[in-house]
Amino acid sequence: MTFRKVDLIFVVLALLVVGGVALLPSPRDRNPRVPANSTHQAITVESQCTTCHAPQAVRPLPAQHPKRQDCLHCHARAQG
Ligand code: HEC
Ligand code: HEC
Fold first, then answer.
1. CA 44 from centre of chain
2. Which helix (H) or strand (E) covers residue 16, if one does?
3. Structural domain tally of the chain?
4. Handedness of CA 70, 76, 79, 80 (dihedral sign)
5. Which of the pair, 62 or 79, is modelled with greater confidence?
6. What's the DSSP call for residue 56?
7. Looking at the domain assignment, is residue 79 inside a domain?
8. Among candidates 40, 2, 38, 65, which has minimal Cα distance to 74?
9. Most CB atoms within 10 A, among 17, 24, 46, 71?
10. How far away, in angstroms, is 72 Cα from ligand 2 center?
11. Which ligand is nearest the CA of 63, by number?
12. Domain encompassing residue 45
């Protein structure tokens, strides 16, 4: 099999696309972070987040907030 110039161009373009997508910032980097206070550090299970972040609780979620339970998928923990 001979390796033609178009093949090389294709390989280079494919690598650029894969590399570019890998470098895109994760949305997690831009969402509000989980505060690094003792309240939040004590919580290790995502299902416990809604004891405070629920409609009648201490800190309700905004009305537009996604109705998903995998909180830490979108909210990174703040360093501290
Ligand atoms: C004991 C109650 C409580 C629990 C449990 C709790 N939070 Fe919170 N959370 C708060 C309060 C109160 C605030 C707002 C004041 C503050 O910054 O600490 C807050 C603020 C936040 C914020 C917003 C920070 C900002 O910059 O506006 C995020 C994100 C958050 N919590 C995520 C979580 C996640 C994810 C969990 C589960 C791992 C969780 N919380 C569990 C009480 C709680
Ligand atoms: C699909 C991604 C996603 C998931 C999953 C998610 N959130 Fe959020 N959350 C966001 C975004 C985006 C914002 C910022 C919304 C805004 O500023 O209007 C936010 C904002 C918040 C805030 C700040 C609200 C405020 O008072 O300013 C808290 C607290 C919070 N989320 C808690 C949680 C908890 C608890 C869970 C799990 C039950 C969770 N989030 C799951 C994307 C997500």
1. 17
2. helix 5-23
3. 1
4. negative
5. 62
6. T
7. no
8. 65
9. 71
10. 9
11. 2
12. 5-74
